[in-house]
Amino acid sequence: MKWTTNNIGLLRSPLGVMVVIPAPHDNELSKLDKDKEYVIEIKKKSKSRSMNANAYCWVLCQKIAEVMSNHSYMSKEDVYRKAIKDCSHFTYVPIREDAVERYITIWQAHGIGWIAEDAGECKSIKGYHNIMCYHGSSVYTVSEMQRLIDCLVDECHQLGIQLEDSDYIQSLVKEWGNEQEEKT
Q1: β-strand 16-20 against 115-121: which pairing, if any?
Q2: How far is the C-alpha of 153 from the C-alpha of 170, rounded, in Å?
Q3: What is the reported pTM?
């Protein structure tokens, strides 16, 4: 059960504080068992968010692309890929020399942020090349997504683009992390 209310009352007694919460008429409330334990959470109502961190990432990419296109055309996808490479981690994968091109094609088919680049011959395995494999943000951890958003926010500041306050941005990343946890 979840609802929004105001006019919460406090009754103080020697045993502690009792909270009186106005609630809607709800059949679920009448089914509460007084002998069972419940978890109650009270949070101050905040402005509802219309987007998550991933959507905000794309908003930032679009804003940067618009400013950068004053000089020469740049798409939001170009900005996103650059940010993935600038701030993200990558994994080296040794691939047989004759399979490099195919591997890169397959890797990049995962999505826009899935970038693979041939970093040259592998020094430790003859006949192999090291491929730098960048993952798209769809599989990022909260800290990786935070780094991507921070990278884009920094770019916006350098370009003089006005943004929301940092608390709002942090809340989007935190909310995105909660959504990622629910998926697993």
Answers
A1: unpaired
A2: 11
A3: 0.62
- The DSSP annotation for 42-89 comes to -----PPPS--HHHHHHHHHHHHHHHHTTTS---HHHHHHHHHHHH--
Say if CB 117 and CB 132 are below 8 A apart: yes
Residue 97 is classified by DSSP as G
Query: Is residue 158's pLDDT more than 90?
Result: yes
Task: Quickly tell me which residue has 């059949």 as its tokens.
Answer: 27
CA 62, CA 60: separation in Å to the nearest integer? 5
- 67-73, long-range: CB within 8 Å, 24+ apart, which pairs? 67/159, 67/160, 67/161, 68/159
3-state secondary structure (DSSP) of residue 144: helix
Residue 73: name the closest of 65, 81, 61 by CA: 65
Residue 165 CB contacts under 8 Å (≥ 6 apart), including other chains: none
Mean pLDDT, the chain, as a whole number? Answer: 85
Token output for 176? 């995105």
Q: Which pLDDT tens digit goes with each residue over 87-142?
A: 878 999 999 999 999 999 999 999 999 999 999 999 999 999 999 999 998 888 88
**CB-based contacts of 74-83 (< 8 A; 24+ apart in sequence):** 77/112, 79/152, 79/155, 80/112, 80/113, 81/112, 81/113, 81/115, 83/148, 83/151, 83/152, 83/155
